[in-house]
Write a structure and sequence with these properties.
Elements lengths: L2 H13 L6 H29 L7 H30 L1
């Protein structure tokens, strides 16, 4: 369905809403639109970041991945020991 036709259908439905419910409908539409506007920049930033390693060589990525694994193991090694000691 094209945008113009869909817009006409939405307006037709709005015209059928009882007057005492218009404020509630307005608030729903207004905050729905604001939510869309707020989420758009965040999505765009995430998508820009998503492909940032495309130009990394396989060897560079493998080294990077190993570095992450090593750092995570080191970071959680101290936690694991202190957690085990508190169980005694």
């Amino acid at each position: 369905m094209d945008s113009l036709n869909l817009r006409k259908k939405v307006i037709t439905e709005i015209n059928l809403v009882p007057p005492d419910k218009l404020e509630e409908l307005y608030n729903f539409i207004h905050y729905f639109r604001l939510g869309i506007e707020v989420s758009q920049p965040s999505l765009n930033k995430n998508m820009q970041f998503a492909g940032c390693w495309n130009d990394m060589s396989d060897e560079g990525f493998a080294n990077f991945n190993e570095e992450i694994i090593t750092r995570r193991q080191q970071a959680f090694l101290g936690r694991r020991r202190s957690d085990e000691a508190s169980l005694d």
